[in-house]
Amino acid sequence: MGILKRDVSAKSGRNAVTIIARGNHLSGDMRVSGKVHVDGVVEGRLEVTDDVTIGRHGVVRGFLTAQHVNVSGLIEGDVFCDSLHIERGGKVRARVCSEKLTIDPQGCFLGERHLQKATPRLEYHPDLTAEKEATGEVLDYALIDTLPDRITLSRGEG
To answer: Judging by DSSP bridges, how do beta strands 35-38 and 52-54 pair with one another?
Structure first.
């Protein structure tokens, strides 16, 4: 008696779920079609076409890209997604690029967060600057240098 049928396709669809069970350790570059649930350890590059769930025992170290990421375990590295949700007990130590970031009480986020939308780049144009100076409008590019590179948020006592 066999479980697998010969006439059934092995192609994964959008509804397919890849499970990396507790006790398994994968490393390297992986591209997965569908959803992924991690309760083991993944090190390297993980690119997922759908959602990723990191279970309580799950660990992802490296580069992760997906649509939606839900974390109960640990992520360390770089994360690119539409939305990131850190559940109670979940830990994210990463540079995150996402449109939406939510953290439950007792969830932990340590790192940097950037919006996914392309931010306009400030560029120096000598012709434009000379034109502005001639009309009395001076552009102060030094102001950008006074901004901090990183901002740390912490919960104050009292």
So the answer is: parallel
Query: Residue 42's pLDDT band (boundaries 50, 70, 90)?
Result: very high
Cα separation, 39 vs 118, whole angstroms: 33
Give me the residue spans of the domains in the chain: 17-118
How would you label 75-89 residue by residue, b for 16+ Cβ within 10 Å and e otherwise? bbbbbbbebbbbbee
What pLDDT does 122 receive?
Answer: 43
Model's pTM, two decimal places?
Answer: 0.66
Tokens of 3: 């479980």
Residue 47: pLDDT band with limits 50, 70, 90:
very high
- What sign does the CA torsion over 59, 62, 65, 69 have? positive
